[in-house]
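Appendix B. Raw example, untouched.
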Amino acid sequence: MLDRNKRIKEKPEKFQENKDEFDLIVTCQERVFDQVLEDLTERGGNMSKMTHVINVEIKDNHDDATLGAFLIHELVKEICASGDHEAEMESIIAALEKKKNKRFLYSPAFY
């Protein structure tokens, strides 16, 4: 995995150093999900900009990473196809959890 990552990633990036705004943040480890929520809380929410943070737990190996990429792609497609993803986010996640028999972590958060 490390060799593959070296080929496709220009450089390591830290979410905490990125000041861009995101409508959706997808993580692949519960630990990272918690760190993202902590960082957003520390930013203070002064801009009152909502974001959705979703964790899709993926083991760090080639097979699970490939399957996880397809799962994340399906999740994002469902969100984009929604008429009102703000109101429908929890039902979109619940439907995909049921369909894939997989649990996601979800939390709305504010910048």
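End of appendix B.
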